[in-house]
Amino acid sequence: MKSTGPSRPPWSWITVWALAIAPLAWSAEEFVGPLPGWLNAKADCGAAGDGKADDTAALQKGLDAIRKSEGGKRVLYLPAGAYRLTATLQFPRTAHGEPQGMAIYGEDPEQTVLKWDGPADGVMLSYNPWYSVMGRLTFDGAGKAATAVDFHGKFSTANEFSDLIVKDVQFGIQAGHMDTDGMAETAVLRCRWYRCAKAAISIQNFNSLDWYIWHNWFEDCVLGATNEFGAGNFHVYESFFLRSKEADLSTKHCGYFSFYRNLSIGSKAFYLGKRHQKWKEIETHPCQVAIQENTVLETADATPVRVLNNGPILLLDNTFSCAAGTTVVHNPPADQADLISIGNTYPRGKAVEVRGRLTQFDDAVAAQAIELPKPAPVPFLPRVERPVIAVPRGADAAAIQNAIAEAAKLAGKRPVVYLPGGQYALKQGLVIPAKADLQLVGDGIENGTKLRLEGPGAAAIRLQGPSRATLRNLDAQGGKDGVGLLVENADQAGGRVFGEQLQSNGLGYGLVVNGLRHTAVRLHDHGHNGIQVVGAGAAETATVALFCGASSRHPQQDPGIHLYDLVKGGRLLVRDIWYEGHAWSLLRLTDSGEFTYHCGFVAPYYGFMKEQGEKDPWERDLRKQVASLEFDGFRGNVCFSLVSSNGAGLRVKSPSPDLNLLLLGYLSNVPDDLGGEAVKGKVVLTNFRVQRKDGMGSDSKPGAGELKAEWARGMLKTLRETRPLPLNAVPDGATDLRLFRVMTSGKEGVRLQAGP
Questions:
Q1: Cα separation, 308 vs 292, whole angstroms
Q2: pLDDT digits (tens, 9 = 90+) for 660-670
Q3: Total of domains in the chain
Q4: Cα separation of 650 and 662, whole Å?
Q5: Which pLDDT score, from 0 to 100, does residue 9 have?
Q6: Which residues have C-beta within 8 Å of that of residue 615, sequence separation ≥ 6?
Q7: Is 651 exposed, middle or buried (0-12, 13-18, 19+ CB in 10 A)?
Q8: Cβ atoms of 72 and 420 closer than 8 Å
Q9: Residues 561, 562, 563, 569: is their CA dihedral positive or negative?
């Protein structure tokens, strides 16, 4: 469909700037360290940090020590100083468990500097950990180094880069290479990139998937983030781009990408969707790109968004102010474009040029020029001195509980209960009392700090509510009958539960949210294997929102439980989520609620068919055998936008008269993807593409139903209005639970409930 009349007034510069900066507001979060169990680069390894001595050997000694966990040390700490490097630092993986669950931290990102003084085109750090963190450092390439951090080696996942400054290199991070393995599920938080001569963040392997880039600052780089030097995918949230020489963002290989709430000023272009030269014969390859709520100002190119792949491309609620020309050009070969433009503000009437299909409504023309804002980088987390109560490595539950009780007496000081890396067998579950603002801190996940419930108790860690606790860098394992984290009395006006890289896994559900009307649940970069949201039976039930992540579900988990489930009006938004698991287990909605799935990739596994004697599962009509997405009498709204199902069958059972289902820019392997009995609910399928069986491209296909603007606005409301929240203070007496790199498991991984 296409309509030209705007449904909202044109933006003023004040509202544009408020939109761009609001989520980047001050954050009441901090860095805690050094802690007693950490290795010190100066005191323990002999580094000078004076900018003159060659510190390469001393830093290598520290890296070798934490890689092998010598003496139980898993964290290397660099005090402030200038560390001169004359050769590449090596952090390889030579065994499965190393380096796993490790961390490298500097004291202060602006005062802890690794300075390259080695050969031209050298690599500063060759890096191959997993489940690990590196942060609070400056990499200064001095205009000589080729790469600051080069990931090169075995497959890696669940890493974090945070609070880094990278300057005067060709590549800031090279995430894998085409001749080795990839680096997936990686968060890049609050980093700053200056004068990267090729690209700041370069995703370079087909398995370098799910890079989550938040609150970064890119200044005077040729490219900000890209996969054109290899392959893989990434998402960029709430970041700043200044004067990118070629483009802020570019892709050459296909995948799914999301660029959300970014601000660009003075760059040559905002997004270039290029086409790989080796694939000239493939004229129909799909590439899902969601471009939402970005503000793009003063681009040097008259066309700040230019796309040569097929899409589908979704432009939603963006604001452009650029030189005269067509703002968006989508012109792949063979007129195979799929472009959706909704609610955008363009600088002139002719804003979009499309060779293919265009769905457009509620776009507007700016009434006046936008005054340039004066942005500043998101602040690094401050290092804060807190009272530290260190627990001996391997202590029992009673000793840990005593430390928690001691910390709870220090109300208002955010004391730290520190658990050095190691195994902690709990004969009884731990309890964190209500309103205790303590921090329970380990050394890392997976091979770091593990708390395992081996005795009685509902959970490895029970948080009485309202909880004001913070958990960092640890595993909480509830066993086959318990819960990893149980959070009680969690529902108060103004309350918030926040997770950054929380991994919730369960034999049943990994995460259960039960009866929350008021508390906002916001999970960033979330790994999960099953989520159930039970509403409060009222319209004001709070929306649970996941921003980026990866999911899976396999036969060892309860086969009667699906990845996502809504009951009693539960509301769930998941966006930019990869799914990989058995084909039957993704979604079956039978009750009521509201579900929004935006920009996702579904990789269903059909191996069980072969195990049952099927020679080639693709030769059967999969939608008659397996329906990964099934709706059976569900009451409520379900919106899929830019989701690639990859053969995961979709079925709406009759009667479902109270179902509203929007499939916008939907990709599938199944030409007729509305299988099953006749549909009686409201179902609309538009900008539909079908992937070819040989994997070499896709074709535009007719949809189903009629997309009307008023109905579509209601279906997209949750996607457009549910945003990340700043980590500022919440009202006294409300839940303020924060989880940073916490891994959970049990019968359920995490349970959040309104009552005791």
A1: 19
A2: 999 999 887 66
A3: 1
A4: 13
A5: 37
A6: none
A7: buried
A8: yes
A9: negative
Predicted local distance difference test score (pLDDT) of residue 680:
55
Q: Which two tokens stand for residue 116?
A: 């390259």
For residue 513, what is the enclosing H or E element?
strand 511-514
First-to-last alpha carbon distance for the chain, in angstroms, is: 50
Question: Are 517 and 490 spatial neighbours (Cβ–Cβ below 8 Å)?
Answer: no
> Token pair of 496, please?
């918030």
What would the two tokens of residue 341 be?
Answer: 């433009």
Top pLDDT among 502 and 727 is at: 502
- Domain assignment present for residue 738? The answer is no
In three state form, how does the secondary structure of 441-500 look? ECCCCCCCEEEEECCCCCEEEEECCCCCCEEEEEEEECCCCCEEEEECCCCCCCCEEEEE
Count the Cβ atoms, other than its own, within 10 Å of residue 541. 23
Structure tokens at 190: 């609050």
What tokens were used for 141?
């390439």
Does the pTM of the predicted model rise above 0.90? yes
Q: Is 314 a domain residue?
A: yes
CA distances from 617 to 301, 324, 620, 628 (A): 48, 52, 6, 15
**Running DSSP on this structure, what letter comes out for residue 331?**
-
Q: Can you give the pLDDT at residue 72?
A: 85
Indicate whether 745 pLDDT > 90: yes
DSSP 72-126: G--EEEE-SEEEEESS-EEE---BTTBTBS-EEEES-TTTEEEEE-S-TT-EEEE
Tell me which residue of 139, 138, 180, 173 sits closest to 159, measured CA to CA.
173
Q: State the DSSP string of 12-55.
A: PHHHHHHHHHGGG------B----TTPEETTTTT----EEEEE-
Does a structural domain hold residue 164?
A: no
Residue 325: DSSP 8-state: S
Amino acid at 253: H
The answer to whether 16 touches 294, Cβ cutoff 8 Å, is: no
Query: What is the rounded CA–CA span in Å between residue 533 and residue 697?
Result: 36
pLDDT tens readout for residues 16-70: 433 444 444 446 799 999 999 999 999 999 999 999 999 999 999 999 999 988 7
pLDDT band at 676 (very low <50, low <70, confident <90, very high): very low
Closest CA to 163 of 217, 223, 100, 114: 217
Residue pair 253/215 in contact by the 8 Å Cβ criterion: no
Residue 351 to residue 485: CA distance in whole angstroms: 50
∠ CA 621-626-632 to the nearest 5 degrees? Answer: 120
Q: How many residues does the chain have?
A: 756
- Integer Cα distance of 190 and 203 in angstroms: 18
Among 662, 674, 665, residue whose Cα is nearest residue 718:
662
* pLDDT (0 to 100) of residue 372: 83
Residue 217, domain member (yes or no): no
What is the chain's alpha carbon radius of gyration, rounded to the nearest angstrom? Answer: 25
User: For residue 304, what are the domain limits?
Assistant: 1-22+238-371
Separation of alpha carbons 634 and 650, rounded Å: 14
Residue 88: pLDDT band by 50, 70, 90 thresholds? very high
